[in-house]
Amino acid sequence: MYIIKNAFKSITRSKIRNVLIGIIIVVVATASCIALSIKNAANEVEQSYLDSYNVTAQLSLDRGALRNNAKSSTTTTETFDPKAFMSNVKNVSAENIMIYGVSDYVKSYLLSIQTNMDSTTLTKVSDTVATTNTTGNGGPQMQGRVEFTNASSGDFKVIGYKTLDSMTQFINSTYKITSGSMFSIDSTNNSCVISVELAEKNNLAVGSTLVLNNPNSAAESYTFTVTGIYEDTSTDSEFSMFSGSSNQILTTYTSLNSIATTSNLVESTKLNIQTNATFNLVSADVVDAFTAQLKTKGLSEYYTVTTNLESFNQSIAPLENLSSFATTFLIIVLLIGGSILVILNMLNIRERKYEIGVLRAIGMKKHIVLSQFVIELLMVTSISIILGGVIGSVASVPIANNMLQSEISSQETTQTEVSNNFGGGPSPTNATQGKNTMMRAFGKSANVDYVDKINAVVDVKILLQLGLIGLVLTIVSSSISMIFISRYTPLKILSNRT
Which distant-in-sequence residues (6+ apart) come within 8 Å of 452 by Cβ? Predict the structure, then answer.
């Protein structure tokens, strides 16, 4: 009790010195409180965003693996046949997707199949008044394009959906039924919905029928019934008065799969069916495990798993930068604040050497004397930590969000500068098209949905961390007292008094 009373009296006697120490600790505590609240809030928001983020995976051809394998399988005396090589690459079928979708790593999966077909009764929607096809059903040939036996392309893209969830354009409001209704997803009678442009071009309405035929065999035809007409509200940079989906015909997976089964009976003219699938994974942590599982289920080495995590990483980039800055700032503040406190404590001990000598001379043990200095600093630190915590709790939220906005602006500025460097800057007629096109060229989203607000609240966890910081500062700065008190004997201290 005597030590505590004496420590309190010492604090009141040296008001200026202790006020200075208190101010320093308040500054350190305030800065530490803000840094800790920003770091913790950023990490919590990032984890929360990741938990709620719908991580999707898709299968795509690994063209690098295809090229490398093609080179290794061809000798110097052989003539490489791309068509023969690609014919040996196993396609991923809808049945494969259903097998891959049965996994502990997959919440659900979206499946659709598509093919191109022609029609003798429909007119294709096009900006061109008249066209002359000089290269077959596939349209103008592109240099370097690999042609397959059954790869003829018709004028109309027919897509068959396994579930309504697979029709993501309707879910995100890109497509909207304007007349009639959506077909029953379990329908097997070739029900379909078509675009407004296609309906207007061919005078079609709900209840109309249309005939599509295999582009490889005109005699192979199929009749569809229109149950609904949809409008495409998407915008793109293509210079056209029609949407990119104007020649799309949407139907059920069952209907199109039945057509494909019939077409497959004749190998030389069968339809070229493409499978599209999106797997909704349980979390971002299972991507590698899911990829390995697909390989064990027979996925070809020529396929790779791609995810949408790049978009997630772009969205949280400002948060990661903010958390990193807060950590660095906290370390710098603690180093500078701790150093200043050590220096002040050294000066304090030098000024009070005589007091130490007297206390030691009357029989007080070293650890008791040291306890008094520790208690003094602990009292000042405790009050300062409380004040710093109050100030930090008030200032942390606006400071955190201002810093986050600054990080977002910095990210956007960097993207704009890169776009401008490549000549993709805004123009007077289109302020965003140039940037958007260039960012897509880099494989990045033109309009990143950044996390633009965090709630940097000071909670019990941060208060405990502040208390730990105060305790560490007290112990570190008091270590100087321990050194001085242990080095000098009472007689030497008193004899050197001036």
Answer: 404, 405, 408
